[in-house]
Specification:
single chain; about 600 residues; alpha/beta; Udp-n-acetylmuramoylalanyl-d-glutamate--2,6- Diaminopimelate Ligase, Chain: A, domain 1; UDP-N-acetylmuramoyl-L-alanine:D-glutamate ligase; Protein-Tyrosine Phosphatase, Chain A; 3 domains; eleven-stranded mixed beta sheet; globular
Amino acid sequence: MRTITDGAWNRRDPARTPRPSLRDTEPPPGTLTAVPQADQNPTAPPRPEQPRPAPLAELARQLGIEAPAADEPAGGAAATGITHDSRAVRPGDIYAALPGARFHGADFANQAASLGAVAVLTDPAGTERAAATGLPVLTVPDPRGRMGALAARIYGEPGEDLLQIGITGTSGKTTTAYLIEGGLRKAAEKDGSLTGLIGTVESRIGDERLKSERTTPEATELQALFAVMRERGVRSVAMEVSSHALVLGRVDGCVFDVAVFNNLSPEHLDFHPDMEDYFRAKLQLFTKARSRAAVVNFDDEYGFRLIRESQVPVTTFSAEGHPDADWRAEDVEVGPTGSTFTAVGPENVSVRAVAPLPGPFNVANALAAITALAVAGIDPQTAADGIAAVPGVPGRLERVQAGQPYLAVVDYAHKPDAVESVLYAVRKVTDGAVHAVLGCGGDRDPHKRNAMGAALARLSDTAVLTSDNPRTEDPLAILATMLAGAAEVPAYERGTVLVEEDRAAAIAAAVARAEPGDTVLVLGKGHELGQDIAGVVRPFDDRQVLRDVIEATRRAARQAAGQPGGQQQPDAARPDAPPVASPANTSQPDDSQADDQNR
């Protein structure tokens, strides 16, 4: 490891494992078998236990196409499910064979047929290959665009029986979803119903936790999840809605009772060509086809624009206390573990509220949650009480306690604005120095790397630049861009800048500098339990690695001082040992180039 003034980095030549591929050459059509990868959760997405069969003829009429002929082998069949993944087909499913970047879904139609598919939904390009299976084929020009509504029909329109609150924006979606779900839980205590949560970290059906592959599930999985929730007694759900989900049709078939807009800042610009396109994608949620009511951040520039362009009634909120907002925060008191404030709403409604996570931006998240719940018809004080009871959000300003005399925090911040907000928030509750660790993801938006390096250098006493998920990119090339951003910060404005490619070693470097009253802040991966290097995902949990490093450092200090407790601990306490996954946080990073997490 070297400081910025040393002018050199360590050189490493780690063994690289080739990125797995299905085949080296183009295969014959219709004969491919999708192969599960080692980093995938073998647990299949949940399905309702008692689906009601939907006749193919009725589904064809919904699609506006001719029904399969009655004399075809499966012409009179009925569907009990639908999936876009040939590996996940169950008997009675429609297999949605979609066009892809490398293969067409119709290439996997034989596999779907062998697993019990009763029909194939595809486009004209896939029709011939799908028909070769002998299954009825439902051909439409845009199968992805029809898949969501078809899934909703197959599962009996489950969303109509749920109070649905969707949250979108660049930052704060996950935290706001957890806070809203906390308010929903408090309200649900009155009738004994359950609540649901769908988002980046996990999905919840009551108290059951499920691994999330992406921020918003694909339409087929989402509608099945709604059906399972309904079947198990869930009556309300809080859900993150990404711009990818809106553009790619993942929320087709959904109409949200309340749609929440937190903010918009530069992000996902490898998926969206510019900020206007990004905003237009978010705007889709606030159309009559997608929602019934809107809750919008009055303090955000794009939120103010959205107030004018929304097609549905808008209720505004302002954490800055703007008097023209429908709901505003007053008497805000920011503390080291959270904030208190008064939420003032229409008709002189006033409730004392708590944002259970630190930072002014979490006052905005909590106020957004109170406003959304009030618009949904929940008593504001009940909503505020439920929000206050939320124990925390995995990987969002999550504290790590291992007996150290300084604050240790892990956060998911992985964009310039979020990095700055977290650092400002931590500064306010830190008496000493801030030692921060940050990397940037590979195969994702490269434009933010320079700004992220600059933000870390400007706002930290020690800025340790390291790897995030380099994926197929050279980690040093990513670090070079971050370092260039740090170098643009005038020397008198920046802290000490260190470069360490190995993430565990980078965390150890930050901990080594920590003294009583300081803060160690590890940014970028948050709740994630894996690190993708050269296409291979290995176990890595920032929280566990940080804890292990702190414990190892404290043991070494006691041993050096000749104190008890300095003995060597088992391998599980070493920084390089595989992390122990928390039951509440079972998410792995998704490797899709079009993934909405986009890190």
